[in-house]
């Protein structure tokens, strides 16, 4: 079942105001019956479904998606956005609000956030990756060397203990 023009207007007004009575009046219902008609309209499944769908649509537009977030970060990185700062006017001695571009630290941070999403897009990142791989290989080689040296030390200690034991037996005889 479709909404009538009056029901649609009521629902749209209700979304704006949240007041069923005033929405009914603005939709063209008689002032005397507006409270009852507003309540009645809100209980109709077709009108309720329309309101719910419109509210969901409004809410989804309030939440930034990944593309919008990347656009905002990029605008900051490029210095296209400004922020409001308060400062004292040296001539008048009064506080003033001024618009200034993001400082370099904020812009660099924005660039880092962008580059995190494109990890191998630049030579610096590729170089960092190669260095991390090399460091990992060196660490593995050192660990293996320590394991091998540990085995050698263990053999050496066993040999020394045996030699000392033989000397002790030889001296006691």
What does this structure look like?
With 173 residues, this protein is mostly helical. Helices cover 72% and strands 8% of the residues. The protein is built from seven helices and two strands. The chain has helices spanning 5-17, 20-27, 34-43, 45-62, 66-77, 104-116, 123-172; strands spanning 82-88, 95-101. It has a two-stranded antiparallel ribbon. A hairpin with a 6-residue loop joins β1 (82-88) and β2 (95-101). α1 runs antiparallel to α2, α1 packs across α4 and α2 crosses α3 (34-43). The radius of gyration is 38 Å and the shape is elongated.
Could you give the topology of this structure?
Blueprint: H1 5-17, H2 20-27, H3 34-43, H4 45-62, H5 66-77, E1 82-88, E2 95-101, H6 104-116, H7 123-172
Antiparallel strand pairs: 1-2
Helix pairs in contact: 1-2, 1-4, 2-3, 5-6
Summarize this structure briefly.
This protein has about 170 residues and is mostly helical. It has helices at about 5-15, 20-25, 35-45, 45-60, 65-75, 105-115, 125-170, and strands spanning about 80-90, 95-100. It has a two-stranded antiparallel sheet with strand order 1-2.
Low-confidence stretches: none
Share in helix: over 70%
Beta strand count: 2
Residue-averaged pLDDT:
83
Biggest beta sheet attributes: 2 strands, antiparallel
Portion in beta strands: 5-15%
Q: What structural class do you assign from the helix and strand content?
A: mainly alpha
Give the strand order of the largest sheet, numbering strands 1, 2, ... along the chain: 1-2
Instruction: Please tally the helical runs, counting DSSP H or I stretches of 4 or more residues.
Output: 7
N-to-C CA distance:
113 Å
Shape: elongated
**Rounded Rg:** 38 Å
Order of helices and strands: HHHHHEEHH
């Amino acid at each position: 079942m479709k909404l009538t023009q009056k029901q649609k207007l009521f629902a749209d007004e209700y979304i704006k105001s949240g007041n069923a009575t005033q929405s009914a009046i603005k939709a063209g219902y008689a002032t005397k019956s507006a409270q009852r008609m507003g309540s009645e309209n809100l209980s109709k499944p077709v009108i309720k479904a329309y309101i719910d769908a419109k509210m969901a649509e409004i809410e989804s537009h309030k939440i930034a998606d990944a593309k919008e977030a990347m656009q905002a970060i990029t605008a900051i990185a490029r210095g296209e956005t400004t922020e409001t700062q308060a400062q004292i006017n040296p001539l008048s001695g009064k506080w003033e609000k001024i618009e200034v571009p993001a400082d370099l630290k904020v812009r660099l941070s924005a660039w880092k956030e962008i580059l995190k999403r494109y990890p191998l897009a630049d030579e610096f990142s590729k170089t960092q990756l190669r260095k991390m791989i090399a460091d990992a290989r060196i660490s593995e080689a050192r660990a293996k060397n320590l394991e091998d040296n540990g085995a050698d030390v263990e053999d050496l200690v066993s040999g020394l203990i045996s030699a000392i034991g033989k000397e002790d037996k030889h001296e006691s005889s």
